[in-house]
Design a protein that fits this description.
Elements (H helix, E strand, L loop, with lengths): L1 H7 L3 E7 L12 E5 L7 E7 L9 E5 H5 L11 H12 L2 E3 L4 E5 L2 E2 L2 H4 L10 E4 L15 E2 L6 E3 L4 H5 L3 E5 L12 E4 L4 E2 L3 E6 L10 H9 L1 H10 L7 H4 L3 E3 L3 H16 L3 H18 L4 H11 L1
Parallel strand pairs: 1-3, 8-13
Antiparallel strand pairs: 1-2, 3-4, 5-15, 6-14, 7-10, 8-9, 11-12, 11-14
């Protein structure tokens, strides 16, 4: 891995990240990395700048050892010491999502229009979901149908048991970088198939399952805290299994899981906007408490998500 080589050999002198698209067809941030083989300080300077405002850049020192502790030697945005402390706290005694659930990207068909229709028929009996059919704490919209047995699948998850599993958490797999909310997830309680713009979470084949309540897990994934955690880590439009898999899940007792999960159940059945907002705030506050955030840290996350 190139990043690992550059960090371990202390070859980076400075890095500039452009905030916004530099190239029209790009969907990830563009960076400039200045290398120096004589640079031996075990640190480098990092800065972020708007493409049309190059003169106002401000650099921050970054520690190579800190970067080496990240899963993939990724150089995430510097957000100050407050966030550094929060990030360490939410990772403490947490389990990566990938160790709790199998994360599967939906199927790719050989031409959606060849197999998918808008009405359920005898020849198209099976519901199939797109990313746009998923809402934030909303029941999936069921507007498309196909035939699992008669369709030609050329990619994505083709294991039938993934789709048959329920309840399962579904997450939009593509989100525009301009959107404030990076993660939009819901729960599917029916046997629904899904296309490659959706990730599905299913239980692992292990004897130990720390998560009793799927709705509790949804509360964590959809929370303001985890939304900001994810946004600070990953700056691509794709929410891949490897990215989602690093989400730190704090395990708690069965009663707490059920209490938070029950609020999510009520929320997903509510049609009242004011009631939904109050429930979302209550759920978010329960997640803050779960991760032992102080009031100052809570206000930091709320301001960052505003």
């Amino acid at each position: 891995m190139l990043r690992k080589h550059l960090i371990n050999h202390d070859l980076i002198d400075s890095t500039i990240v452009f905030d916004g698209l530099v190239f029209e067809e790009a969907n990830v941030d563009t960076s400039i990395i200045h290398l120096n083989s004589f640079h031996k300080t075990n640190s480098f300077y990092w800065g972020k700048i708007q493409p049309n405002n190059l003169e106002s850049i401000k650099f921050f020192p970054r520690d190579c050892e800190e970067i080496a502790n990240e899963n993939r030697y990724e150089i995430f945005e510097y957000l100050g010491e407050t966030w550094k402390g929060i990030k360490a706290k939410i990772k403490l005694k947490s389990i990566p999502l990938s160790e709790l659930r199998k994360i599967s990207l939906g199927m790719k068909l050989k031409g959606n229009s060849n197999y998918i229709v808008s009405e359920k028929t005898e020849s198209h009996p099976d519901n199939i979901l797109f990313g746009k059919d998923l809402g934030y704490y909303e029941k999936p919209k069921r507007n498309n149908y196909f035939s699992w047995t008669d369709s030609l699948k050329i990619g994505g998850t083709q294991r039938h048991e993934v789709y048959l599993s329920n309840p399962k958490i579904l997450i939009q797999a593509i989100r525009n970088l301009s959107l404030e909310r990076r993660i939009v997830a819901t729960i599917d309680e029916e046997t629904s198939y899904f296309i490659g713009t959706v990730n599905g979470l299913t239980k692992l084949n292990s004897s130990t399952d720390f998560i009793i309540d799927e709705y509790f897990l949804l509360a964590i994934i959809n929370s303001k805290l985890i939304n900001f955690f994810f946004k600070s880590q990953f700056t691509t439009i794709s929410l891949t299994a490897s990215f989602l898999g690093v989400i730190p899940v704090k395990i708690t007792d069965e009663k707490t899981q059920k209490d938070i999960g029950d609020n999510v159940r009520i929320l997903m059945s509510s049609k009242n906007d004011e009631a939904r907002k109050a429930l979302i705030d209550e759920i978010d506050n329960s997640v803050f408490e779960l991760y032992d955030l102080t009031e100052k840290e809570v206000q930091y996350i709320k301001k960052a998500n505003a």
